[in-house]
Amino acid sequence: MKLLLVNPNLTQAVTDAVLAAARSRAAPGTELVAVTGRFGPAVIGSRAENALAQHGVLDLVAQHAPGCDAVVLGVSLDTALWACRELLDIPVVGMTEAGLLCGATVATRIGLLTNGARMGPLYRELVQSYDLGERLAGVETLTLTPQQMVGAPQEAQQAVLEAVLAGARTLVERDGAEAVLLAGAAMASMADALQPRLPVPLLDGVGCAVALAQALVGLRLPRARVGSVSPTGGRAVQGVSPALTALFGRSA
């Protein structure tokens, strides 16, 4: 089995964190291919940057998805998730969607931890779009930026972990969260280190997405041929990469 991990941000260190988290949950024999965006935002921190990153995701999957069995979006806003599902015949899993779905199997109320105060409403909207708003205990945001998290020198890494732990504890103590989802690709691979110090499950979206992608490949479900996620019909597009042009040009 071959999984494509897509990070549309331009920060290679985030891709490295996603790959490390994916390796910890990949089954024996699963091959992981991680790719980083070539254009767009360094790190997504707004709706505008997320809109730009959607093109980046589509460009990356057009180039790298052929030959893969599934795609995992290593971007916590699940950027271009449904667009990818329209264009590809293989399973596509978003890390936050996967984390929420896994969380719903172990808890009645899920807390979501992310970076940046302005991002809180975006994640609430994302959770609502999955019809899981009633299961959301609360959203807590950290003052640390993703760049600070993945770029911290060795001596500062413990402080980063302590900040993440404090945010998770706030969700448990203030909001009654029974599980906490780390909604940030820069926080990928932190869950294992912090889990022993938290009284509820700590969910790493990348790990959940890899596990779900592997399960979907094994289920061998066909894609819908009718409805809103069916193939787009082969309409022509212009001004994008040859690989993306060809992907849009497929009629089935």
Automatic annotation (TrEMBL):
<dbReference type="InterPro" id="IPR052186">
    <property type="entry name" value="Hydantoin_racemase-like"/>
</dbReference>
<protein>
    <submittedName>
        <fullName>Asp/Glu/hydantoin racemase</fullName>
    </submittedName>
</protein>
<comment type="similarity">
    <text>Belongs to the HyuE racemase family.</text>
</comment>
<dbReference type="InterPro" id="IPR053714">
    <property type="entry name" value="Iso_Racemase_Enz_sf"/>
</dbReference>
<dbReference type="Pfam" id="PF01177">
    <property type="entry name" value="Asp_Glu_race"/>
</dbReference>
<dbReference type="InterPro" id="IPR015942">
    <property type="entry name" value="Asp/Glu/hydantoin_racemase"/>
</dbReference>
